[in-house]
Amino acid sequence: MRREDFDILKEKVYGRELVYLDNAATTQKPREVIDAMVYAYTHFNSNIHRGVHHLSQIATLNHEEARQKVAKYINAKSADEIVFTKGTTDSLNMLAFSAGELLVKEGDEIIVSTVEHHSNIVPWQMMCERKGAKLRVIPMCEDGSPDMEAYVKLLNERTKLVSVAHVSNVLGTVNPVEEIVRRAHERGVLVAIDAAQSAAHKKVDVQELDCDFMAFSAHKMYGPTGLGVLYGKREWLEKLPPAEGGGEMIEHVSFEKTTYNTLPYKFEAGTPDFIGSYVFGKALDYIESAGREEVEKHERELTEYAEQRLREVEGVKIYAAGMRKAGVISFNIEGVHPYDVGVLLDRQGVAVRTGHHCAEPLITRLGVSGTVRVSFALYNEKEDIDKLIEALQRAKQILKG
Ligand code: PMP
Predict the structure, then answer these.
(1) What span, in angstroms and rounded, lies between the C-alpha atoms of 277 and 84?
(2) Which of 72, 181, 203, 296 has the most CB atoms within 10 Å of its CB?
(3) Is 165 in the pocket of ligand 1 (CB under 6 A)?
(4) How far is the CA of 363 from the centre of ligand 1 (A)?
(5) Which atom of ligand 1 has the smallest separation from the CA of 87?
């Protein structure tokens, strides 16, 4: 799909055509997204919101138009519910701080799941430490899914918030977030969704999911690095205190008392990445023009094909094999360290990721030191998977000596 829009895919690695299968870490950018960055710096670079002059007004309009695009993309009720951040990690840190200040006291509990990325564990741990609260963990079943019975038992009157990944960045499994939200809401507990691995690959509709918060990163969605989003339902964003102070987030400042700006500016201290937001808007246009359902279908077919072909390789163990996945597969080859597999694939032009994928508790739960992870984007083709399998077979031969 649209491979020709990505010039970087024509790069040679050790003299071979690049096979890029590290999209869960970051996606490549289509030409029109890269061009948009040059266009922004060439035509309207100027600090936003405060300016009376023409360029500043255009930059402001573009930044706010991008916010509208994000709201539409995730079906938020209003663009005021979209806070621009530096990325998923930043969004979750902000949320953990603010929600901690508003909601959490000693003895309270926060729930995460076993498959979480460190950025959906550590900010909550830090907050729990500050507040004397406890982090509780939904155990994982053998097939990689969360143990829903155990989850329901974990919810109690001390639970203040549940924060879970929509899609695991290690296993690729799609978590039953609708049910997780429903069960939490029955108890009056808030839910945040880490959509870093789903936002570019699946439908994400915050009204349908009914989640209270959502976090994702532009760089995993064909957009720029250093930009992300924290979505929050208006009623909660209005109640939460700001996580950072400075310019933009204020209404009035005096040495005696400062009042805060309206949503979403209350959460955007300092000059926001208004070039990045404009470029991200173009990335969202790009995904929409490719067709979100088509992208999801294409990546599902690739994932199924990859699992099927990987099974042909002797000694391969696929984690959460056969489960519904969104473009990510983790595996190991019996008796071989994942790092060695990664290096030998790289020498053949195939870019994969190895290690703990910033999810050490999950890797420990799997009882391994790491995995090899392949992950897909809309520009990958079955041919990339064929090349991966060929390179894997060759790597095995080299390792056998
Ligand atoms: N959560 C998940 C599920 C992720 O895959 C990642 C990125 N690997 C993050 C959070 C963190 O995203 P970022 O580094 O863009 O802040």
Answers:
(1) 8
(2) 181
(3) yes
(4) 16
(5) 16
Give residue 325's pLDDT: 95
Which of these is catalytic: 128, 141, 211, 358? 358
Q: Are 189 and 163 in contact (CB under 8 A)?
A: no
Is-catalytic flag, 128?
no
Provide Rg for the chain, Cα atoms: 22
pLDDT band at 1 (very low <50, low <70, confident <90, very high): confident
pLDDT per residue over 209-225, tens digit each?
Answer: 999 999 999 999 999 99
Report whether 155 contacts 111 (CB < 8 A). yes
Nearest-CA residue for atom 12 of ligand 1: 88
Position 51 pLDDT exceeds 90 = no
Give the residue carrying structure tokens 């199924």. 304
CA of 193 to the centre of ligand 1 (A): 12
* Distance from residue 219's CA to the centre of ligand 1 (Å): 10
Note the pTM of the prediction, 2 decimals. Answer: 0.98
Q: 78 with 234: CB under 8 angstroms?
A: yes
Per-residue burial over 231-267, b = 16 or more CB atoms within 10 Å of its CB, e = otherwise: bbbeebbeebebbeeeebbbeeeeeeeeebbebbbbb
SS3 for 249? coil
392: pLDDT strictly greater than 80 = yes
The two three-digit tokens of residue 250, written as one number: 């204020």
**How many angstroms from the chain centroid is the CA of residue 335?**
32
Q: Pick from 217, 38, 258, 222: which is nearest to 117 by CA?
A: 217
Distance CA 64, CA 81 (A): 12
Give the number of the atom of ligand 1 that is nearest the alpha carbon of residue 89: 16
169 lines ligand 1 (CB under 6 A): yes
